[in-house]
Amino acid sequence: MIVCSCNVLTDHDVRTACQAETRPRSAGQVYGCLGCSAQCGRCARTIRKIMDEALGAAEAACGGCSGHPKP
Ligand code: FES
pTM above 0.85? Predict the structure, then answer.
């Protein structure tokens, strides 16, 4: 599903960016990871939501470690 019509980014693109070694910490960094930049900004809230889901799932999968406590 396309979540950013300005840059034609899909939810899959955002999840992929969240799995990068240097995990983006903001919607702005997600655009950077994907080689583009925010245009109208309408998608920022949706991208943030996908990031929260993707990063929350990654933490749950690792079961917590010294870097971050169990959810
Ligand atoms: S819809 Fe993403 S910047 Fe416009």
Answer: no
Q: How confident is the model at residue 50 (pLDDT cuts 50, 70, 90)?
A: very high
Q: Confirm whether 54 is domain-assigned.
A: yes
Domain that holds residue 7: 2-62
- Which residues is 4 bridged to in the sheet? 9
Instruction: Report the candidate in 44, 34, 37 with the shortest Cα–Cα distance to residue 12.
Output: 34
**In the chain, how many domains are there?**
1
Most ligand 1 atoms within 8 A of CB, residue of 2, 5, 49 to mutate: 5
Is 7 a member of any domain?
yes
Rounded to the nearest angstrom, the distance between the alpha carbon of 43 and the centre of ligand 1 is: 5
Query: Looking at ligand 1, which residue's alpha carbon is closest to its atom 1?
Result: 4
**pLDDT band of 64, cuts 50, 70, 90:** low
